[in-house]
Design a protein that fits this description.
This protein has 753 residues and is of the alpha/beta class. Helix content is 33%, strand content 20%.
Length: 753
């Protein structure tokens, strides 16, 4: 008796007759209405009387909404594997996870050859099928770096780009009868799909033994492989129902089959199969499994189990939490941040506050690091890790205007600032939030928020009036100036150290169209140009905020600096005098200006993060660009010690806030400097940075990849750090939240000293 415990599924096998095209599609729709799980079509491209199976699958996907679709089986010799991989992935995305892939090695070789394919021997056909499977899976593995490279006897891929990533993990089922094909099923396939009428020798039992032996030898659990069967008979009537129920039940319990496909084109037969046979078989098999104690459900592959982190108890993940681990489909979409290609042992996707508190309680018991991610755009990459747990709150993405009169808005930490701007704009409101719309609310609104309107309206955190936070001890608190005021003080500037913010309330302000100008300077004489730009910013009205982005000379072009200037007033007659001083800063390579809606500045086009890795960024604050600072920046450009350097204007309204009003205490500086490097430039940056850093005054944590005591003291000066240490000891004494510019509690800091 062999029962692999898989969930039972039922499908139809429809003949794709070209002269009855509408009837073929109708049978697929009847299959869905009959509550079948799967509809399949044979694939013989050389058969002129048949519809092309791939075109048919695509059309049926558009005419159905739930049922899965597959070829039974697709003819690989006439469908190049890399192209087929993209086609199946595309169908899966368009059908929202309903495509599966049945493959055959080829059988009718005269027909294949007539259509332009190569005529292969049985052994060659199996080899070609295995090669094709490797290429197909390589194309689907969109999260892996580099292209697909494969050199086989029959197929090759020489750097083919990976992707798209299918919506779900597409299974590859093989139509197999002979020992060599059965062995391939055991080694590499997700399912075995023979037709019962063709199984002669080996028998079913012998075939299962070959598959299981090959699977075991390949380090797989035989239960990973679903056993599927095209049943006998093309018609099913009321008198045949009992016999078919008995037959299928025996196939399930005695031979381990779990997907049963009815051949035939009878609407009545499809209805009987789906509505009467399938429920009866499910009931009989469930009863037998309960009596025998057969474990049911999918089995995690041995390869996936080997990827688990030793410090994580995977079996105790709280029920209901959406968790993704290495080996799961979609892991590549959640492993990385914008900068860092992580390899976490578990990613928990929180859908609610209860999920957050449950995940924190679980993470507290594990022996691995915990990272918290909202948008994943942080320069440091600290919202992922290697081998630890990532708590992803991107699904907590509420954007709601609570009160038009007070302009108070409620934001989830997973919302992206581009979406916030888009939704506030119809109300004539906005919120300065950095310079990029894909940035998540949570990280930025607990660290600072130096944006396009900073000089006029201050930092993002200056407008936070309440926050809700899940703590390490399981509490979920609402904080504001009257409730847990000390924690509210800490959240605004050092929020990542104290828990997981689950919601923020901010007071937005009137924002309409703005003037956006870009002026590109030749920075061959950077020491002269940069200070003049800085003086122009300081002397400008507060309506003007500017960022200067700089890159070294390349490809025969000089080092350049692009000043992006935003004026919170769309009147050209007001803007022009403000822009004039910037036209006198230095040699201009180009300039342009537009009147645009504020959301256009922070447009969000998020499509996922793949990670880049190896990026080092340093940060500092300064009041004026002194000759020493200008010289250090010029040296960085000349020596190619940076790939990208930026000065952001602060000052203005930012400095109207008292230094002790919140954990962000930097309220006298006028600029924030960030300088980053990757590859060969990194070593040069690390050599140059200490000299430049000594000229700076403070640190903005969002642009700093390094950590350490001296960085903490620069980020949180004087009494600010001492107060944060005391609060850390109260709210997170075990330092569960230590992956985001960690502040050790007071006693631990003293002991370390």
């Amino acid at each position: 008796m062999t029962d692999y415990g898989h969930e039972l599924k039922f499908g139809s096998f429809i003949t794709p007759v070209a002269q009855q095209a509408d009837a073929v599609v109708a049978l697929a729709q009847i299959s869905e209405a009959a509550e079948l799980d799967l509809v399949t079509f044979q694939d013989h491209p050389y058969q002129a009387d048949f519809l092309d199976t791939w075109t048919l699958l695509s059309f049926v996907a558009a005419r159905t909404s739930r049922i899965a679709l597959a070829g039974n089986v697709l003819n690989l010799p006439l469908r190049p594997p890399a192209v087929l991989a993209r086609a199946v992935a595309s169908l899966d995305l368009l059908s929202h996870g309903r495509a599966e892939l049945g493959l055959g090695a080829g059988a009718f070789w005269d027909g294949v050859e007539a259509m332009g394919g190569d005529k292969l021997s049985p052994g060659e056909a199996v080899t070609a099928l295995e090669e094709g499977m490797d290429i197909i899976r390589g194309i689907w593995d969109a999260g892996e770096p580099g292209g697909v490279r494969f050199e086989g006897k029959h197929y090759h891929a020489r750097g083919a780009r990976r992707g798209p990533l299918p919506e779900h993990r597409i299974n590859i089922w093989l139509g197999a009868l002979k020992p060599r094909m059965l062995s391939l099923v055991g080694r590499k396939a997700d399912g075995w799909l023979p037709s019962l009428s063709y199984i002669k020798s080996p028998t079913i039992a012998e075939s299962n033994a070959i598959i299981d032996g090959a699977a075991t030898e390949a380090g797989r659990d035989p239960r990973e492989i679903r056993r599927m069967i095209n049943l006998l008979g093309s018609r099913l009537g009321p008198d045949d129902k009992a016999a078919m129920i008995d037959q299928i039940t025996e196939l399930a319990l005695e031979h381990g089959f779990s997907t049963f496909i009815l051949p035939g084109d009878s609407p009545n037969g499809i209805n009987i199969f789906g509505k009467e046979v399938a429920p009866a078989v499910r009931e009989a098999v469930a009863k037998a499994r309960k009596a025998s104690g057969t474990p049911a459900g999918d089995v995690r592959s041995a390869a996936a189990l080997a990827l688990r982190s030793p410090g994580i108890d995977y079996e105790s993940v709280p029920e209901g939490l959406a968790a993704v681990e290495p080996g799961d489909h979609g892991y590549s979409k959640v492993r990385s941040t914008y900068i860092y290609r992580g390899a976490p042992g578990l990613v928990i996707n929180a859908k609610s506050v209860d999920d957050v508190t449950s995940a924190i309680a679980y993470a507290r018991k594990q022996d691995v690091p915990l990272a918290v991610r909202s948008g994943g755009h942080g320069i440091s990459g600290r919202s992922t890790n290697d081998g630890g747990i990532v708590l992803d709150v991107s699904a907590l993405n509420e954007i709601r205007l609570l009160d038009p009169a007070s302009k108070r808005v409620r934001l989830g930490p997973g919302a992206r600032w581009g979406d916030v701007a888009e939704q506030l704009a119809p109300h004539g409101l906005g919120m300065s939030s950095g310079d990029y719309g894909n940035v998540g609310v949570g990280g930025l609104a607990t660290a600072g928020g130096i944006g396009w309107l900073s000089r006029k309206h201050g930092l993002t955190i200056d407008h936070v009036v309440a926050a809700e936070i899940a703590l390490a001890d399981g509490r979920h608190l609402r904080t504001d100036k009257d409730n847990h005021a000390d924690l509210f003080w800490a959240i605004r500037g050092a929020g990542g150290n104290f828990g997981v913010v689950t919601a923020l309330e901010l007071e937005a302000y009137d924002v309409g169209d703005v003037v956006f100008a870009q002026i590109t300077y030749d920075l061959t004489d950077a020491e002269a140009v940069i200070p003049r730009w800085a003086d122009a910013v300081i002397n400008a009205p507060r309506d003007l905020t500017s960022f200067m982005s700089m890159v070294p000379a390349r490809s025969g072009n000089p080092a350049i600096g692009q000043a992006s200037i935003v004026i919170a007033n769309p009147d050209p007659t007001v803007a022009q005098p403000m822009l004039q001083p910037f036209l006198e800063v230095g040699p201009i390579l180009g300039s342009q200006a537009f009147i645009i809606p504020y959301p256009a500045l922070v447009d969000s086009q998020y499509s996922g993060h793949d990670g880049q890795g190896g990026y080092t960024s340093h940060s500092g604050l300064l009041t004026t660009v002194t000759p020493a600072i200008a010289r250090g920046m010029g040296d960085a450009l000349r020596n190619r010690a940076t790939n990208f350097m930026q000065l952001r204007a602060v000052g203005g309204a930012v400095n109207d806030v008292a230094p002790d009003a919140m954990a962000y205490a930097h309220r006298h500086q006028n600029f924030a400097l960030s300088i980053g490097a990757h590859g060969s430039a990194t070593e040069r940056l690390e050599s140059l940075w200490p000299t430049l850093q000594n000229e700076l005054d403070g640190l903005y944590i969002s642009f700093e990849t390094a950590t350490g005591r001296d960085h903490l003291e620069r980020a949180f000066p004087g009494q600010t750090l001492q107060r944060l240490r005391r609060l850390k000891a109260e709210y997170d004494p075990t330092e569960l939240f230590n992956a985001n510019f960690n502040i050790p509690p007071q006693e631990r800091a003293l002991a370390a000293e």
